[in-house]
Amino acid sequence: MDDIEIIPVYATDRNEAFRYSRVRTFFLLDNQADEIRLKDALTRLIRNHWRKIGARLVGKTQEDPEPLDYHLPKQFADDYELFRWSSTSYDKSIDDVIKTGFRPTPAEEGVTVWPSVNEFDTLFRPSSWPFTHREAPNLPMLLVHITNFHDATVIAISHPHAFADQLGLSNIVKAWIGMLEGKAPPPMVGYDEDVLPGQKPFESYPKSETYKKGRMHMRYFWEYFFVLLRFIPELVFHPKETKQLLFFPIEMVEKLRTKWTEDEELGKKFKEAGELTTADILSGLLLKLSRIDHTSKPMLSFTQTVNLRNRTESLASPERAYGFIHNALIWVTDYFRYSSSLSVGELACRNRRAINTNLEPETSDLMVAITREVARTSQSMHIAEIGGFSFNVTNWAPVWRQLDFTPAVLGDKEGGKRKPKLLVFGDARMPGVPERFHSIIMCRSQEGYYVTFVNRVKTVNAVKKYLETDPLLQNL
User: Fold this and answer.
1) Domain of 38, in residue numbers
2) From what superkingdom does this record's organism come (predicted)?
3) Is 34:410 a contact under the CB 8 Å cutoff?
4) How far apart (Å, rounded) are the C-alpha atoms in residues 289 and 416?
5) How many CA atoms lie less than 13 Å away from 227 in the CB half-sphere?
6) Considering the chain, what is the average pLDDT of its residues?
7) How far is CA 43 from the centre of its chain?
8) Domains: count for the chain
9) How many Å apart are CA 137 and CA 130, to the nearest integer?
10) Alpha-carbon separation of residue 326 from 121, 133, 205, 249, 280 (angstroms)
11) Does residue 414 register a pLDDT over 60?
12) What are the tens digits of pLDDT across the range 47-106?
């Protein structure tokens, strides 16, 4: 092993949600990409700069491949597989295969239902790609498949969630494209050290804080069993789920944001009303839609996934945030009694309050420390309380804003290049895991947001019926 560098996988990358998942991400460009130059650029990025991408994740045993270490050759042999590459070409338009969103429906039509993200897996993911790290633990970190059409390109990437979050993947893609322009990326941050906050001994945090209900917290050994009891009837009586993409026009979401930021009554109740973002509004809408046919009033943990890049001292500078590719996530929660009478504005304010409160340095420090301990003790990452329900929103849309694939595409026949339109879809969930308690804001185009919506068949049908009469969600 003298020729191998062994680097530990940090606890923040080893929690239950990441441990075995391989994330599939599909970058859709409305132009043809230069496949040969892309492959060469990725090779140079890994060989000469971010070498850790060429490592292998190594687990405890073959029977239990939970990622514990990176094994990285100190020198890559000429025949070493830095990444796995494949491609397919079709002499037709991408519109002959799937509805892409490059020509979206008009904004006045409001929310529209699109095909499931699963269709991207079916069409653009090679059948040999595993869904989980457990299925094939010795694969390269990055699996890349290019699907070429005469008017578009789909770049599919699979990577272990234990290696990178989606902003980490975005940083890799940004560095990859930069190689096409001769731009070297900054040094990797966190290459062989854990740079996230919450570094003091876990025992030094008060138990009253680490076990505090209503947010992510440590549990007693018996506790999660009783948490799950509340979900069992829902899953037993409604086992089937339907997965769709919903398109929310930007104009519609902005109008709703303006409506609630200017609402005087809401402003009296929540100081956060004046600072609502479109992501807060979308989160409120998704929660309302997810319970559109429910009449119960449960206690509910409303959780948002938050990235710490540019929000914590160790990753404060743009260069350090760019150079960090591993998971830098915390989960922030507002815990309250849900009722269908609660407005979208109030739910959006609760979401914003959870984010603001947990990004205070002392609180984010505690949240990272709890994340490490939850991983160390193999507890569930599911944020819910005994007798209550949960709903989590993850926002990928800001992650892709920095990406410009212009250097990666072929020039038009008329000469020169234009910036290609970019849409990004993907999936990080493990097969067999219920998805109805979680939505992902996938991406934002010039026209609107694309969001995954998964729920029991009855609820999805109720949402479709509601959209027939109120597609702009004015009365939700």
Assistant:
1) 4-469
2) Eukaryota
3) yes
4) 45
5) 19
6) 93
7) 26
8) 1
9) 9
10) 24, 16, 25, 32, 25
11) no
12) 999 999 999 999 876 667 677 899 999 999 999 999 999 999 999 999 888 877 677 677
Whose tokens are 């130059």? That residue is 37
Q: Is residue 476 assigned to a domain?
A: no
* Residue 328 belongs to a domain: yes
Asked if the structure places residue 474 within a domain, the reply is no
pLDDT in tens, 254-272: 999 999 999 999 999 999 9
Report the CATH number at residue 129: 3.30.559.10
pLDDT higher than 70, residue 302: yes
Cα 110-112-113 angle, rounded to 5 deg:
165
What would the mean pLDDT of 124-144 be, rounded to a whole number?
93
Length of the chain: 476
For residues 208-231, average pLDDT? 96
Q: To which residue do tokens 């092993």 refer?
A: 1
Residue 220 lies in a domain: yes
Question: 459 is written with which tokens?
Answer: 């609820």
